[in-house]
Amino acid sequence: MRIDIITVVPEILKSPFEASILKRAIDKGIVEVHMHNLRDYTDKSYNQVDDYQFGGGAGMVLMIEPIDKCISTLKSQREYDEVIYMTPDGKTLNQKMANGLSLLNNVIILCGHYKGVDQRVRDVFVTKEISIGDYVLSGGELGAAVLCDTVIRLIPGVLNNETSALTDTFQDNLLAPPVYTRPAEYKGHKVPDILLSGNFPKIETWREDEAYKRTEQLRPDLLKD
After folding, report:
1. Could you identify which of 6, 97, 107, 126 might form a hypothetical disulfide with 85, taking C-beta atoms 3.0 to 4.6 angstroms apart as the criterion?
2. Beta strands at 60-62 and 32-37: parallel, antiparallel or unpaired
């Protein structure tokens, strides 16, 4: 998979891809992540990429021209499955969406900034709009990092144990069951006996039951789906 991220502040995005699972995925050649500074695609003085909004009002808006130039340049080099715009009024990211995106080959992620982008960018270029929650960030960069982490870890070969992602919370609309590790007893708090029994069919049944109970208690809304 190749991910091209268009941003005004690429510095914000460097850290997540220089450590842990994301770095390992890049080093293995499973995924490519490229940052594109929008200011490299403007011929305005002082590398201007934003302007005041028509009709008045507070806040600057990213202009269509540099975004058009950047996206057009990328599209001249390869085909893209999606052009994603990170925006608080997009469809909220969930596990089902991440599963689908992990199957794609080439993706562009456009990070909004200031008051957002010229609406014509969304009308002409964007194919999917994604939000990571009902709140506003200073820009779409942190949202893009969250999206990348969520998607990349699902790609085969990224996790050491590929079945791990299949048992994550929200897979099958259930929360994950409780998990335990050594020691089996700590200050009087014991691991459930079933997990130490070695009876794996019964352990799986226990986990399924616990996942359902947890979901019913903490996120009953998920069971409606």
Report:
1. 126
2. unpaired
Q: Of 121, 152, 183, which residue constitutes the final position of a domain?
A: 152
Is residue 89 a contact partner of residue 66, using CB atoms and an 8 Å limit? Answer: no
Shared domain check, 12 and 86: yes
Q: What is the pTM of this model?
A: 0.91
Both 79 and 139 in one domain: the answer is: yes
Over its C-alpha atoms, the chain yields an Rg (Å, rounded) of 22
* 69/71 Cα distance (integer angstroms): 6
Quick: pLDDT tens for 47-91: 999 999 999 999 999 999 999 999 999 999 999 999 999 999 999
Kindly report the number of other CB atoms within 10 A of residue 79's CB atom.
7
- Encode pLDDT of 99-155 as tens digits: 999 999 999 999 999 899 999 999 999 999 999 999 999 999 999 999 999 999 999
- The reply to whether 127 falls in a domain is yes
Cα–Cα separations (whole angstroms), residue 54 to 57, 68, 101, 115, 169? 8, 19, 35, 12, 44
Strand order in the sheet with 106-111: 32-37, 2-7, 106-111, 82-92, 128-131
